[in-house]
Amino acid sequence: MPLGVILVLNSIILIALASVNNVWGKKTDSKKIRIILSYGVLFGLCLILLMELAWGTETGVFYDSRTILIAAVSSTYSVFITLIMIVIGVVFRLYMSGDGAIAGVITIVCTGLLGIIFKKYILPKTKSRFYLSYLLFGIVVHIFMLLYHFSLPKDLDFILERIRIIAPYVLTVYPIMVVILVSMIKQNDKRISFNETLAESEENYEILFNNFSSGIIYFDENGIIIKCNDKFLNIMSATRKQMIGLNMNILPDSNFQKVFPKVMRGIPTVFHNNYKSYISQKDLFLHIDFQPAYKESVFKGGIGIVDDLTESETLKEQMIEVTRRDPITGFNNRKSFEEDISTTMFDELYPLEFLMISVDNMQFYIDTLGYTKADNIMKEFSNYVRASYRDDIYIYRFSLNDFVMIYSIEYIDNAKKVLRQLRDQMKAIESVTPSVSFTYSTVEMEKKSNWYDTTNALRNKIYSFRTYTKSNVTKNSIDLLMASLFEKSPRERQHSERVSKMSVQLAECLDIDAEMISRIRVASILHDIGKLNVDLTILDKKGRLTDEEYQKVQSHTESGFRILSTVNEYKELAKIVLAHHERYDGTGYPFNIKGDNIPFESRIISVVDSYDAMINDRPYRNALSQEQAIQELKDNSGTQFDPNIVEQFLSCFIKDNL
């Protein structure tokens, strides 16, 4: 075949090879052995094909485009690929033999070496002039190719004639073909790199998409979900199959359907409300930020960023509920009352009745029984109230003592009947003796009435009434508390009665005035009232008390003081009871008062109280004899006891043989 035809066929083969390489899609710098071997063998076979289509084979000297392939491969692919290709080409050329075999081998090997050298040492310095560099490289390679003719075993005229014939093609077409082939190879590399980067970006996007802290949905112009991430599926407790293709226009949730039509009109919209999933039936509180997507001003759907606020909203509601509700009774509190009256929630009830109930002496119960028992009183009271009144009655715990009820005027007669029943029920509260009572006042209100004025007026009426009854009520309560203590421990009753009798006798021996004797009589009866708050197991313990138990026993003087201080007439008695365990030397309790700073009445009760305790059996010891008890008083005179009172006590009781 003519030389021109041969060169065209060779060029077609090279371009086809580059195209196959592009389709295969492997980069020139791959480090995988499988790829290296595959490329080396492929290019080696291509060399064989090119040499099979050579021109001038009848002379034993072959002319083909192998140098284009070798130059392109060796300057772009790895050394190992080049070497595999060279080895295959050399073996085949030697197999074909002929006069040009040695020159052919030299051409294959030297072209490959030139390509390797160019790639490593020259190309890095000329990257900005890519096409020019490869064109000059192609020219240099083919100048050397022409020079390899002188290794032919032919006469000079033959060599020069051959060079003359092929030189125009080799020095023009071949370098250009090198540039074209290399460009195709490099373009393939760029395409593969781009695809790899794109694939990596898509993978990273999918990772971010599915691991985003919020749910994400994409929907089309028809409101149909076309993509969603894992977080959204987790929020909705649904599968991807259930969600993809879902038409949001037909979701049954009414709150959602108030908002979504705006989204479908291409308006950025926020959904922030309760939502019930029709797939999982979960009750959720969702925040969804819808953003529309446009293409050439045409609505194409959009994106929704979904956050599940169910837990935080539930906590928020609970916190609001906590601030509005009394934790002891479960009724709404004063804050709730003030918020409610500022709204129109009572408008339908007018005219209505406003009732205030005030539980009597709550502070007294706190002081005497402690917060736990006082809270139990309020719990039992609230249970009676809750059971007695209809569900449509508004009930608030207004303060420590006070409850407010609001109801329609039509309910007045029934409400008063319930109040009478409630008063009887309060007597049955088991958590405290004495029984609990309450005071109440009511007023009818018209719509124009001022809530705050009405509330203050009711409170003033209740507290005015209580002013006249408080003292007697509290005195009676104290009497009942003492009865409760004596019922709890008969030993305490006998002890208090003996101490009161002996203290009065001692006071008479001391020839003090009748008023002080009267105080001593009552104070000595009440001196251990604070033991009502000490557990009976401690009072009756047979063994030694622990430090904690002893502290509880010691606290009875302060408890007694608080109880008695609730009655104005008992203020002085409270001070006497508080100090009856102080020691004359200042080492007693609770305040280490010393000598004459201890109330005189307390010093009398201290001596009598100790003497009676010594001569009577106690859980932790047997009674002492009268002689032993008297000796104890003498031994502790001036330290625990007032020495003058001890002296008068011994004189009085020895003389009277008590």
Word description of this protein:
This protein has about 650 residues and is an alpha+beta fold. It contains 26 helices and ten strands. Strands 2-1-5-4-3 form a five-stranded antiparallel sheet. Strand 1 and strand 2 (about 225-230) form a beta hairpin. Helix 14 (about 360-370) crosses helix 15. The radius of gyration is 54 Å and the shape is elongated.
Distance between the termini: 156 Å
Number of helices: 26
Quick one: CATH class of the largest domain?
A: Mainly Alpha
Helix content: 55-70%
CATH topology-level name of the largest domain: Arp2/3 complex 21 kDa subunit ARPC3
Q: What form results from the Cα inertia axes?
A: elongated
User: Structural class, from helix and strand content?
Assistant: alpha+beta
Largest sheet: 5 strands, antiparallel
Mean pLDDT: 83
Strand order of the largest sheet: 2-1-5-4-3
Q: What radius of gyration results from the CA coordinates?
A: 54 Å
> How many discrete domains?
4
